[in-house]
Amino acid sequence: MDNSNVLLIDNGSYKIKYGIAGDESAPKICHNSIVKSKTSYGEIYCLGNQIENSKLLQSTTNAFIRRPKEFGMLTSWEIQSEIWDYCLYNPKEMGFDLNEYIEHRNDGTVSCPHLILTETMLHMPELSKNTDEVVFEEYAFDSLFKSPSANFIPFNRSLINKTQCYLDSNDNIVNNSGSQEEESDTSFNRFQLVIDSGFECTYVIPIINGCIHYEAVRKSNFGGKYFTGFLKNLISYKHIDLSQETLVVNKIKEQCLYAAPDSFIKQLQKENIVKEYVLPSEEFRFENNHVDDRLDSNMGYLLRENEKLPEGMVSLKLKEELYTVPESILSPDKVHFDSSLNMSSHGLIELIQQSLNLCPDIIKPLLVSNIVLIGGNFNIPNMKNRILRELQLNMPTEWNVRISCDEDKSELFTYYSMNEFSKTNEYLQTRITREDYFEHGLDWTTKKRFGYQAFM
């Protein structure tokens, strides 16, 4: 089918990834938040990617961050609409204008693009109805298909096979990049175990015959938001107080963290890698005019190897904090929390085992051999290989664990899978049009088409 007029929006809690289906260029990426900061001139509000503009957001100290999603649920369409408008009708800053894809016909009617949208797993029905209402009545899209991210993953066979790896008989990691796709009578993989670790939380989602097996879905509170809070506490306790610098600590998390390659205990006994992060300085930016974007950054930057610290700047030298934070999602029992960070004691491997125990025995080996990691937390170096080794140790010896993860771009796995889904007949058969929406109403779209109630 021609998918040139289908808009894809992966509406994440932390960032929005969006673009037109079939476009070979990288998707547009925008922060899904509004930031308020106080300056000598008054309050400053920054929308989306404006938070990275040091001329607008001069100081990140005590910045108040407001997101449309709370606990993964889209609770505020007032904020979300503002951010969508910034993304979709902003050719100057985002290089995208949805008006270019709206067709005005000779008979006076208007044809808007179709929409494929991601939605939170087990999204509350009343909140889901709000999404349908906004999509059809405010943005007037011609049709809508919305689903949790995991539902799109089985359609991206080429990327799954390209990024797959497993352990050989000598416990060496083997990449499956040279293998060819198996022939199938469907456009999707029938069995898949998707692990989605995003900003708010982590889900383990089994897919059986192309549908989510909701009874076996498991959730953990560990996510990017938790990592930022944990790292903030470690740095504030051991180095310098950054308790009011959430945006800076979040940037440190993205640029510096790595997972222990073998085990947390072995990594503690090794000589640790030291990474030096230069903290932002508002006075330094005002007193010096630089061409270097890193020096002008309002969130600091990672010092390169053998690079000298600029005079007048302050830096952090981080060691064991860099792998202690990612370890919390794998082995929370080995990491000591304080009372404010004490969450679920279930590590990711245990969570996967719980999910598998609720699946039919005959397909458990199929699920284990078709694992896909998605979400920004799997951009952390060594995370994919560490999960592979840990999971193989905890599975029966005759089961072969295979994991797919597009490292460095794991947060885009869903978007590229949505692009593949837009080319299929399944998309044409399952989307709902504006005419369907106005004929049947909100309850029908939630209970009969997109809501998880229809599958339980």
UniProtKB/TrEMBL annotation:
GO CC terms of this entry: cytoplasm; nuclear periphery; Swr1 complex
Pfam families membership: Actin (PF00022)
Membrane spanning residue stretches: none
Any Gene Ontology biological process: chromatin remodeling
Highest taxon of the lineage: Eukaryota
GO molecular function terms attached to this record: nucleosome binding
Entry-linked SMART domains: ACTIN (SM00268)
Family indicated by similarity: Belongs to the actin family.
Protein name as catalogued: Related to Actin-like protein ARP6
Natural source organism: Hanseniaspora guilliermondii
